[in-house]
Amino acid sequence: MTWIKLNLNFIGTSKKNQIFRSRAFKKGQFNIYSPVFDKKMNMIGHIKDVFGPVDMPFVSIQLDTNIKQVDFDFSSQSLFTKMKKSRKK
């Protein structure tokens, strides 16, 4: 597994999710339902949806049930995900 820093800007909150804008998106960088971690590598939730323009999409992150939005400052936090190493054929 490889750790990937997500280049996301916090936009706001929907009813159930936190909405971010990806600054630089590479295909295969992350997938829907990929776990999301804070800088201490604690899981805070998972990617619920990716939508909008292909080059700079919006990313919806659903927080884990034990994380509350008021406990977490998204504007100053770095977020990470894990990516499986691709198999060489």
Structure commentary:
It comes from marine sediment metagenome. Pfam families: Gar1. InterPro entries: Gar1/Naf1_Cbf5-bd_sf, H/ACA_rnp_Gar1/Naf1, Transl_B-barrel_sf. This is H/ACA RNA-protein complex component Gar1. The model has no long low-confidence stretch (mean pLDDT about 85). About 0% of the residues lie in helices and about 45% in strands. The strands form two sheets. A five-stranded antiparallel β-sheet has the order 2-3-6-5-4, with no helix packed on it. The chain is mainly β and about 90 residues long. The chain has strands spanning about 1-5, 10-15, 15-20, 35, 45-50, 60-65, 80-85. The chain contains no helices and seven strands. The chain has a single domain, classed as Probable tRNA pseudouridine synthase domain (Thrombin, subunit H).
- The oligomeric status of these chains comes to single chain
CATH domain topology: Thrombin, subunit H
H and E order: EEEEEEE
Q: What is the count of structural domains? A: 1
Proportion of beta-strand residues: 35-45%
Count of helical regions:
0
Structural class: mainly beta
Query: What is the gyration radius calculated from CA atoms?
Result: 13 Å
Protein name: H/ACA RNA-protein complex component Gar1
InterPro entries: Gar1/Naf1_Cbf5-bd_sf (IPR038664), H/ACA_rnp_Gar1/Naf1 (IPR007504), Transl_B-barrel_sf (IPR009000)
